[in-house]
Design goal:
The chain is α+β, with helices and mostly antiparallel strands. It contains four helices and five strands.
């Protein structure tokens, strides 16, 4: 596939991708390493939590989302990194058996004033479960190289 450049992310574009199954084993494994709260690592202990059952860490959901971004487009883009995440919201618990996918919306895109070979793209991501419910949203900005003149 061709490399994706700044010009390949038109404002208003919605791109759907991903299909990741979340298992209880994955939830517990991630949580034991990175977020060992009882409702992430122990199904029995989770019964006494606010949700009442084992759920994935929000950071696990974010990591799964990053993997889906990489697999769908990021690794074949002319990415120059990101200044960071502006907003991340965990709206609905991710449970064992959930299948996650992503909708990426291009909110804004502009050439960099200080680096003419780079564009700045703002994205909104919605992470959906198999019922179409939004589990997480993420808003971030990416630096993407502009298409070389000879490629236009």
């Amino acid at each position: 596939m061709d490399l994706l450049y700044f010009e390949d992310f038109p404002v208003g574009e919605i791109f759907a991708f991903g299909d990741t199954l979340v298992t209880a084993e994955d939830i517990v494994q991630f949580a034991r390493e990175w977020d060992p709260q009882p409702f992430h690592i122990d199904a029995e202990a989770a019964k006494a939590s606010q949700i009442g059952e084992l759920i994935a860490s929000g950071w696990h959901t974010g990591s799964l989302t990053m993997r889906m971004l990489c697999d769908a487009y990021l690794l074949r883009s002319a990415s120059e990194g990101s200044p960071g995440v502006e907003e991340m919201r965990w709206l609905k618990p991710v449970r064992p058996g959930d299948r996650l996918s992503v909708h990426r919306t291009t909110l804004a895109a502009r050439p960099s004033r200080s680096r003419p070979g780079i564009g700045i793209v703002e994205f909104q991501f919605e992470v959906l479960n198999q019922h179409g419910e939004t589990a997480m949203t993420l808003k971030s900005t990416s630096f993407v190289r502009r298409r070389p003149e000879s490629s236009a």
